[in-house]
């Protein structure tokens, strides 16, 4: 490797490493701020918090790495141009493409490493992070209670929902609703209270949930199964204490892994297999639901032979020839081709009942479709998320290459190094790149656009910018030619337009 290549690569690696460390540090602090409510003041050890952040850091790489490549490339070539090093290279016959060659090789290797990192390290870290958070929630039951939704408490048969958590370690609760299930899994008990408190001790394996000012409802199993009236018990209480055994949870291994996989925890091969499975399952669900609605509507009976009511004839029944059977089909059946043929089979007074039945059938069908729509949309969203995750692994690696070709020539054009202007330009370009990607992925999740477009749209928009900046930097031109923008022809057109307006107003005043 030549001395110049080593020099350019060393300058870039210094800017790349320092920028990556600083940006990762900033994003880690953002992560701490996001999860501050779950981590702060909950009695967690620093080791556990450190593990949580360590497992979460790989998820920040898809955001940090593209910005780092863009910023480092702008800083490196901006410093070269500002210190006239790039001019010296050109005077020696070294073009921009030749100066970029060692960095192009490095960026290609970085893109390959990024793909393997996104395919192996990020899913494993997501899996570890998910299980660690769930195990922490089991050890610290207060963490398992999420405001506004039903949550399980440890290994008990209770689901609890609270409107607000406050106080030390979030042990004080407000507006509590508890559902308890029996041995069969049926929800037989409902408890509601205005206030509550979680009491626990390190020496005890019992968690006490003290409820205040509430009501207790319980369904009682009737001995007579035919009895339609279900007896129940109701009581009011000022204070009600529920004890939850945490002996199993105190021995919980925080590193225990459970077989839960989401789209973020799968590799490319696993995603492809899961996508095929989800596609077949969704297709079967939609097909079965469509056939069910089709049969329920009665359309299946159109264009079919419908038997006419007739009195059996013993003479005809004793004969068994093909000609007689064909004759019977012609006489005893009618072909239905439209709804008018169905209506014609009934008397006038029955047609009203038929129309009422049809309206009720349509109304029930619409209700069924609306209810099924949410379920099918969720299934479609899960399928789209898996396809997005598959495309994101490739788009991340390719995006680093494109952003390098945007930043390197742009740095040579603006001729500014350091942290100031390059940082501003890099952040603006990255925000455009990032928000386009977010909007595209949001549209792709509900199927508005294909997942391939959702993952690759931001990168495909940056590609023409990279080509444009490279051509302008090679020709030693600015991003936008001010001479062309303010050319003589443009001023002549503007002055001519002003003269026409002045003559028009003069004639109008005369």
Task: Describe this protein's structure.
This protein is α+β, with helices and mostly antiparallel strands and 510 residues long. The protein is built from 17 helices and eight strands. It has helices at residues 3-34, 36-39, 46-56, 61-82, 85-91, 96-139, 141-144, 247-250, 268-297, 314-318, 322-332, 339-344, 348-414, 420-445, 451-474, 482-485, 488-509, and strands at 151-152, 158-166, 172-181, 187-199, 206-219, 232-245, 305-307, 333-335. The strands form two sheets. It has a six-stranded antiparallel sheet with strand order 1-2-3-4-5-6. It has a two-stranded antiparallel ribbon with strand order 7-8. Helix 3 crosses helix 6, helix 6 (96-139) crosses helix 13 and helix 9 runs antiparallel to helix 13 (348-414).
Supply the number of helical segments: 17
Unreliable residue runs: 248-254, 305-320, 322-331, 482-488
Distance between the termini: 80 Å
Strand order of the largest sheet: 1-2-3-4-5-6
* Cα shape: flat
Q: Beta-strand percentage?
A: 5-15%
The assigned structural class equals alpha+beta
Run of helices and strands:
HHHHHHHEEEEEEHHEHHEHHHHHH
Provide the residue-averaged pLDDT: 76
């Amino acid at each position: 490797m030549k001395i110049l290549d080593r020099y350019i690569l060393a300058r870039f690696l210094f800017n790349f490493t320092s920028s990556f460390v600083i940006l990762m540090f900033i994003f880690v602090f953002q992560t701490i701020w996001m999860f501050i409510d779950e981590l702060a003041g909950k009695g967690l050890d620093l080791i556990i918090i450190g593990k949580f952040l360590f497992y979460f850091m790989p998820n920040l790489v898809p955001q940090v790495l593209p910005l780092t490549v863009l910023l480092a490339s702008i800083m490196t070539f901006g410093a070269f141009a500002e210190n006239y090093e790039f001019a010296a290279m050109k005077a020696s016959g070294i073009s921009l493409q030749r100066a970029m060659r060692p960095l192009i090789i490095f960026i290609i290797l970085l893109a390959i490493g990024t793909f393997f990192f996104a395919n192996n390290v990020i899913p494993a870290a997501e899996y570890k992070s998910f299980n660690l958070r769930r195990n922490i929630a089991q050890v610290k039951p207060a963490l398992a209670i999420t405001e506004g939704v039903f949550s399980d408490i440890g290994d008990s048969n209770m689901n609890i929902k609270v409107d607000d958590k406050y106080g030390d370690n979030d042990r004080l609760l407000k507006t509590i609703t508890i559902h308890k299930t029996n041995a069969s899994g049926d929800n037989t008990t409902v408890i509601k209270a205005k206030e509550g408190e979680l009491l626990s001790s390190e020496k005890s394996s019992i968690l006490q949930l003290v409820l205040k000012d509430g009501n207790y409802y319980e369904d009682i199993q009737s001995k007579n199964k035919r009895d339609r009236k279900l007896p129940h018990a109701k009581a009011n209480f000022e204070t009600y204490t529920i004890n939850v055994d945490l002996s199993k949870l105190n021995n919980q291994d925080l590193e225990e892994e459970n077989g839960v996989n989401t789209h973020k925890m799968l590799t490319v091969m696993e995603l492809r297999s899961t996508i095929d499975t989800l596609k077949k399952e969704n297709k079967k669900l939609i097909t079965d639901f469509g056939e069910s609605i089709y049969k329920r509507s009665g359309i299946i009976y159109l264009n079919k032979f419908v038997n006419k009511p007739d009195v059996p004839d013993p003479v005809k029944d004793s004969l068994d020839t093909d000609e007689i059977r064909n004759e019977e089909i012609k006489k005893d059946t009618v072909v239905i081709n439209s709804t008018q043929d169905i209506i014609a089979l009934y008397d006038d007074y029955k047609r009203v009942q038929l129309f009422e039945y049809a309206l009720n059938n349509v109304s029930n069908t619409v209700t069924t479709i609306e209810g099924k729509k949410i379920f099918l949309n969720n299934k479609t969203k899960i399928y789209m998320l898996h396809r997005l995750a598959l495309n994101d692994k490739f788009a991340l690696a390719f995006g680093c290459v494109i952003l390098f070709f945007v930043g390197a020539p742009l740095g040579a054009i603006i001729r500014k190094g350091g942290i100031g202007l390059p940082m501003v330009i890099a952040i603006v370009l990255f925000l455009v790149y990032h928000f386009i990607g977010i909007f595209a992925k949001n549209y792709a999740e509900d199927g508005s656009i294909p997942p391939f477009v959702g993952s690759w749209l931001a990168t495909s928009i940056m590609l023409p910018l990279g080509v444009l900046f490279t051509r302008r930097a090679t020709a030693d031109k600015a991003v936008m030619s001010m001479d062309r923008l303010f050319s003589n022809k443009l001023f002549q057109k503007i002055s001519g337009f002003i003269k026409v307006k002045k003559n028009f107003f003069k004639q109008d005043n005369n």
